[in-house]
Amino acid sequence: QVQLVESGGGLVQPGGSLRLSCAASGFTFSGYDMSWVRQAPGKGLEWVSDINAGGIKGYYAESVKGRFTISRDDASNTLYLQMNSLKPEDTAVYYCARHNGAPDYWGQGTQVTVSS
Questions:
Q1: Pairing of strands 92-99, 110-114
Q2: How many CB atoms lie under 10 A from the CB of residue 72?
């Protein structure tokens, strides 16, 4: 069965960095576009970034452009999100999702808290 397991979240000070990982299994990872989506406390889901199958192109929300970098390692079936220059407004649960026209499978999420 399809499984997506995020890791790498935690507490970081403003201006700090974190690298999130998403381990995928149960499907041909290299054949799918993948996404990161986040949900801040008391708010709805916010799309963060996409990467296409093959990892040629990444797409970013304006709120994270220039600070976050999405990447993938198809050999290890892992999706990454490098987050730099973190701000308190980046505090959220971060989810990875598989794209099949629209996100169809989600991980359980990893908490990122940016606070001094």
A1: antiparallel
A2: 23
